[in-house]
Amino acid sequence: MARWIPFTALIALSVSTLAAAYAQTAEPAAEITPQVTLNADNIFVDEATNTVIAEGNVEAQYEGRVMRADRLEYNRTTDKVRASGNVIILDPDGTERFADEIETDSNLSDGYAVGFSTRLPEGGIATSETAIRQPGGFNALDKVIYTACELCEGETRPTWALRARRAVLDQEEQMMSYRDAVIEIGGIPVVYLPYFAHPDPTSGRRSGFLPPTPGLSSKLGAFYQQPYYWAISPYSDLTIAPMVTANVNPLLAFEYRKRFWSGDLNLDFSFTNEAEFDSDGERFGDEKWRGHLFGEGQFNITQNWLWGFGVEQVSDDLYTRRYDISGEGAERGLYRGQPRRGLNQLFLQGQGQAWYADASLLAFEGLRAGDQDDTLPEVAPLLFAEQLFDFGDNGLLSVAGSAAFLTREAGVDSQRATLSADWGTTRILPGGFALEPFVDVRYDTYDLGDTTTGVDRVERSAANAGFTLSYPLFRAGKSVDILIEPTAMIAAGTSDVNDADIPVEDSLLFEFDETRLFDSNGYSGFDLYDDGNKASAGISATMRWKNGISVSALGGRRWRSESSSFLNESSNLDGTVSDWVGGLSADFGSPLKLETRVRLDDKDLNLNRIDAKASTRFWRLNGSVRYFKVDEQISASNEADEGIDIRGEFQLTERYSFVYGRQRDITDDRDVRHTFGLAYEDDCSRFELAFERSESIDRRLGPTDALRFRFSLKTLGDFGSNDVD
Q: Do residue 142 and residue 212 come from a single domain?
């Protein structure tokens, strides 16, 4: 409706101007509008009624817009234009409008359409008995039906439709309102709304109520959440979403967004006054104010510099899980927190063509069972800067500095400063060998506090010098190209650089794999160092078919001149020989994609670790399977870990699908999440009903059962709650 009225105004004004020009050919040519053309089988003037008439295949064109009709009349006395008989209006954006009859005057002070319908570019279809524009910018559709569903041959009802007794557009206020609106599914009324309104799609952001979220939960009981959207200004808005529940006290949630000239701010927070409660909604403890705050912001300072922050704060460990609040663990700055660990950060970041720098303040909040916040560090600050020097044929030099200041209420405090330099270049030798000599040096100094040994300062220097030698072998074929590249790395390095007094903070969960196979220092962190002489050997292979299929693999191992008691077995750098490490990826297009990483024992080639994923979109199946296994002897927790994650959808018929998902903890013999259900989908809607079971237990929460129902209507949005447990 909002788009039909202004378009009709242009057509009506264009046709009336053209008709007047056609009937008065004796007037000056300056009054003719050349942009408008009118074609018909017969055009004549009825002098008795002072009317210009066009009949038979009438077509009026104006700036890409077209109106077709069987008959068009322009009454010069009443200044009325009437088009009748199979009226079709075509807009440049693809919108199509149809009517049995349209009448309006040239300035569109009033007008109407009979038997009106429209087809929008996004697929929506609307029909009404009459469409009327009244003076003052009020436009009305009577007995409206709207749907985004195409009717196939033999079908009489769309999957869903919106019916309303009357729809009104207030052009001055730019608001659409409906009376006696009903949403029908398969011709059956399911939702009745005596009145609702929303902004005209052509208008900007407007305040108003958003679709509610009702549901039923074993924790909360029956609940209802009604969001209200407040467009505070063109650059800021606030969504207020109160939630009332049957089992516990109400909760009030907010989402605030603001865009500045230099950046963006997003805040998501909620609060309630309630006691703790378990999976059955049974309350315990005292009532008190509880809530959460997730926020982020990022702002440009100059072309090369920006600053930002990330906030993750909750009143108690299980608050977000009790109220099913999402957003925990999202990336809100330079760093992403670990699962069930809140991360608060303030950062500064700069980058140029040959340099990079950042500075951060970090604070952690423990949300896991057994976490003690006084043992978690505050990092104030964490610094890093790097400058590159390009000497052309003489190589590339990188000079970097880093610092970390960690403090705890209970435990070892540490202040680390690091200065490093890395140089490398590439030379092509006779026969096609690629030689890459390198040198890297590093100096670390630590100031320590509250150590058990009483040592308060540690210094160390480390260096490596060596080369990487590879021999790329390439064979181009008619159907497949093959690249095989054996590679070896040899480095001489300083020994005994690790120190028992240095607290290990950034390398606790590190594992040497194929991604660092040819690095001189196998560790990615600062606290531990891959010291001594070392060598690595491996081979990579890539096959690329002309039809787009590709297979890539890389594998090898590492040797060290001396073992180190500081490097544990889980790191894969504990002894003089590492385990075999490798990775394989294969892309066969939609039918199959594979990604696999393995670690094989250096003595008997037993499988110490595997992480494999396969995904497919073939025939009626669309899904993925991920399997992982970690042997207890290389596990950082000294416990084996094995699991499988299955997600997929199998199309039973053209419109019905079986939905399945299972995240299985094989080690503990339990389902972290198990989902199965039925989905219906056509070109305009999707309905899904699924049962979900989780056997995860976190203190007094879990296990839980969930029934999920959700339906999405094309062009109208999503309805229903994501989880009902």
A: no
